[in-house]
Amino acid sequence: MAILLKFFVAGLVRYWLIHLDYWQTIANRVEIATPLNSWKRLVEGVYLYDRNINPYDGDSFHESPIMLVFFHYLMKKVPYLLPLIFTVLDLLTAYLLYKTSKSFIRIFKESQEKHVSETADESKSMLLNDTQLDAASEYVLSVYLFNPYSVLNCAGMTTTVVQNLLVATSLWGASNGQRMLACVFVALATHQALYPVLLIVPIAILLADVNKGCNKCSYIRTLLVFVLCWGFLIYISAFIMDGSYQYVYNTYGFILTVPDLKPNIGLFWYFFTEMFEHFRLLFVCAFQINALALYVVPLTLRFKKEPVLLATVLIALSTIFRSYPCIGDVGFYLALLPMWKHLFTFMQQKFIVGCAFIITSALGPTVWHLWIYSGSANANFFFGVTLSFATAQIFLITDLLFAYIKREFTLKHGSSRQVDGKPAKLVLR
Amino acid sequence: MTCLLLKFMVIITTVSNVLGDDFKEEIFIKPLPPTHLYSYFQFVTLVNSEKSFAHSHLSPRSLGEIISRFQVDELHLTLTEGQWRHKQWGYPVIDAAPGAELYAWFSQEVTDIDDQWRKLSATLSGLFCASLNFIDNFNTVTPQMALWPTGPVKGNTNVTSLLRYASLPREIVCTENLTPWKKLLPCESSRGFSALLNSRMIHNTNYHSIGVHVRNVCASKDCTETLLEIKQTVALVYDYKIINSYDWSFRKLFGQGLPGACPLSSASTIYVDITSNDTQPFKLTPPPDRIVLSQRGGSDTKLAVYDIKADGQMVNIGVKQDTKEKLQLTVPPPLHFNRYVLGYGKEFGGIVTDLVNNYWTAIDVVLLENAPWWLPIQLSSLRINGEAESKLVKSMFYSPGRSRQKPYHLELLIKLPPRSTTTITIDFEFVFLKWQEYPPDANHGFYIGSALISANLPTAKNYTSIPINGITYDSVINASKPWYPAVFRTNGAMVSLPTPDFSMPYNVICLACTVVALAFGPLHNICTKELVLKPVGTPVSLTQKLLNLFKRKKD
């Protein structure tokens, strides 16, 4: 009952925000709408497509052709239902995350029972009981439904709403061992925004864990299904655009080469505004590798026992380092964090990170207004805010990982911090 | 001495007849009551269409070579400072966009037109000392409806694909452009009408535009052969306030009298529009050789004509106003327009074009909006009189722009209802450029080029252009046609793009990389190291700490 009420209230808030007079302002906010996901560009793309002008001819549209056809159909047939559709899609995302966290708790319990023998006696009390675990999924749901980031993202009617739904579905599919579902949706998400390609790693591990049996066969099967799905989507998209692969330059090419330097909450815009032309390619490659490839292998090797944590961290890192991030992405991975509620006690920078989130969220729009409308600040102000926002997110993620290994250590060796009766401290070696 | 000179001239004339080159110079002066005066110079050279230009006689060889080298069929180049005010001044003989404007039709044999176009603009840039070398694909459009060649075209040619159009609204026109322009004339600036073009005086005007227009014209009625017409024009608009008097004369306008015609010209004629004499009486001195009444498209024009001879006699044509107190009501032309930028802040804006049709019938116009790539317009925001789907639009062409590659190009064929104002609005978004893409003085703002308006006017009211098949100015006399084609340029506009801090590149690179390193460091630690308990020793004294610094690390 309480869950239904939450859904009802959250849906109402979203629906009300879309119908507000300030809707245009929300939909145009630089923190919410990027060139990649903004509602305005979607409308423009559909408008051009409707008039038989190839939207990929110019620079105004960067969604995949599948999204183009989908929204073209919606805007032609049921334009009045669009606010409702967006609200429902976002609520569905919340529901799927809720279900995912339920499944995750099931997996977590199983692994906890399996490893109970390795746990130190004095740490037995730290093992989680059912009530503690069940509360986590409630928190996941609440955070996604009422986090201002996700609420505003939905109110801005960005395509990140769809993106979040696709990722949530694939996570849910993976945690329930449904390979086809997980792969199709992660392929759809990848086709839309490229960065979710990272998720195939945790999903493959998760599927192998849940489905038991031959691990390697499972990995290969998952990878194969994903590649086939993705390839099929690329082909279908070209088929929609009359066999032309021109759209690839406007979707993947646009994400990878960062030609539009409109400010957003990420690190790319000012960095590549101020970049020396000579080094642009080098740094574009460096930053994209950082976002796409750098952390996958080491983190996978380190956390292969915890695929859900791996997924959370990879989603978060790709959000921080992607070329056109928006607060919708941030809201999504923040909703996954309550699954790790039990780690919060081991985190050291909760307060700093919390303060930084609040302060930057308030300061960002302020300095943006000062720069763009009042002309009394300059780009550096906004850059400073986005920089601290990124730093806060990085602290949050690294702190979470440290907390995880600290808990792991404590479970194994007990909570006493003593070596041979002498006081000792935890250090990395 | 005079005898010898005459003989010499006779020889020149015969030679010119043999080669078929023909040079004519003309001035058309029209008062634009109450406060301005329009003077239009045109120097026409007709060249027998031998495309090689190995020998050139009266035609400028430098320009001829460019035309033949790049296989240009028709070329229009104007360099303009100031803004023609169509509403107050009526229509000029040839309209021009503020800054530099270049458009050309290439010959059908050209395979890579874009490449040829870049080469042409770069070469012309050298010839006229103008920054035409900034013309590239990212500011070039191919107008689909707005521009048509003025010369004869072979029946089955797709002329649109051979056309390229670019304008550089930021270009500043000055003496350095006028001097090479004058050098193309057979008499340069020593004799003839071009002697009046004294840069000290003409850059002192409200509006000045120099142009070169090259096209083919029919040599005979059946048009089996063509001649190449090279027309050099200058349009000047003087403000009576600047010349300090309502009485004008050549000496006041140009700083000197006219030292006779160019000896190489076959005709040197001055036309003064004295239609306004009826309402605002003035007296011409010296009296004209003849007065011609032209009835064209429902408007009567009286032209005073002077035939100038190359006798070296100083001519100083002037006007003395009878009364100055009379108030004059200017009748706006049948079609006029205004363009401005909407919005505040540096995030979103809009361009508005108002088109006013004063006439009692509908007028079909083609509006060409040519937004640079850094001003992305959104077609979905196009509103005509506030409506998204307007019945006034008969046809539309849109080619979306791409950053750093091609501009946004919108063409609308609109039927303007009689006696109406049509407002066309389109939204744009401000673009954030790379720091090195900003021009010097980035906060000065960015110029948006003029929109092109191409119309077939049903009336010749305020219309002064030469008919399409005419060469010299006398072809306007009694040249009534069913409609009068005209291409106008609206006023340009300016936007101020948001700028980064230009002094920051190193800092930004360092700071952003630091944040990336903030993630890399801990993640590297987490992935490669393991947690261990390490005994905490007793607190060390300061001396011990200092000693430890020099000790080699054991573990």
Layout of SSEs?
The complex is a heterodimer of chains A (429) and B (555).
Chain A: H1 2-18, H2 23-28, H3 39-50, H4 65-77, H5 82-114, H6 130-146, H7 148-155, H8 160-175, H9 179-193, H10 200-211, H11 215-240, H12 247-257, H13 268-273, H14 280-292, H15 296-302, H16 307-321, H17 327-336, H18 350-374, H19 379-413, E1 418-419, E2 422-428
Helix pairs in contact in A: 1-5, 1-6, 1-7, 3-4, 5-6, 5-8, 6-17, 7-17, 8-9, 8-10, 9-10, 9-11, 10-11, 10-16, 14-16, 16-17, 16-19, 18-19
Chain B: H1 2-19, E1 22-32, E2 36-48, H2 61-69, E3 72-81, H3 86-89, E4 99-106, H4 113-128, E5 140-141, E6 163-168, H5 175-183, H6 199-202, E7 207-218, E8 226-239, H7 240-243, H8 250-254, E9 267-273, E10 282-285, E11 290-296, E12 299-307, E13 318-321, E14 335-342, E15 348-357, E16 363-371, E17 377-384, E18 393-399, E19 408-416, E20 420-429, E21 446-448, E22 452-457, E23 484-489, E24 493-495, H9 505-528, E25 531-535, H10 542-550
Parallel strand pairs in B: 1-9
Antiparallel strand pairs in B: 1-2, 2-8, 3-4, 3-7, 4-6, 5-6, 7-8, 9-12, 10-13, 11-12, 14-15, 15-20, 16-19, 16-22, 17-20, 18-19, 21-24, 22-23
Question: Overview of this structure, please?
Answer:
The complex is a heterodimer of chains A (429) and B (555). Chain A has 429 residues and is mainly α. Chain A has one domain (2-423). Chain A has 19 helices and 2 strands. Chain A has helices spanning 2-18, 23-28, 39-50, 65-77, 82-114, 130-146, 148-155, 160-175, 179-193, 200-211, 215-240, 247-257, 268-273, 280-292, 296-302, 307-321, 327-336, 350-374, 379-413; strands at residues 418-419, 422-428. A two-stranded antiparallel sheet of chain A has the order 1-2. In chain A, helix 1 packs antiparallel against helix 5 and helix 18 runs antiparallel to helix 19. The radius of gyration of chain A is 22 Å and the shape is globular. Chain A starts with a helix and ends with a strand. The relative contact order of chain A is 0.11. Chain B has a domain at 16-332. In chain B, strand 11 (290-296) and strand 12 form a beta hairpin. The radius of gyration of chain B is 31 Å and the shape is elongated. Chain B has helices at residues 2-19, 61-69, 86-89, 113-128, 175-183, 199-202, 240-243, 250-254, 505-528, 542-550; strands at residues 22-32, 36-48, 72-81, 99-106, 140-141, 163-168, 207-218, 226-239, 267-273, 282-285, 290-296, 299-307, 318-321, 335-342, 348-357, 363-371, 377-384, 393-399, 408-416, 420-429, 446-448, 452-457, 484-489, 493-495, 531-535. Residues 1-18 of chain B have low confidence and may be disordered. Chain B has 10 helices and 25 strands. At the A-B interface, helix 3, helix 13, helix 14, helix 15 and helix 16 of A face strand 17, strand 18, helix 9 and strand 25 of B. Chain B: It holds the Pfam family Gpi16. Chain B: It comes from Loxostege sticticalis. Chain B: Keywords: Signal. Chain B: This is GPI transamidase component PIG-T. Chain B: InterPro entries: PIG-T.
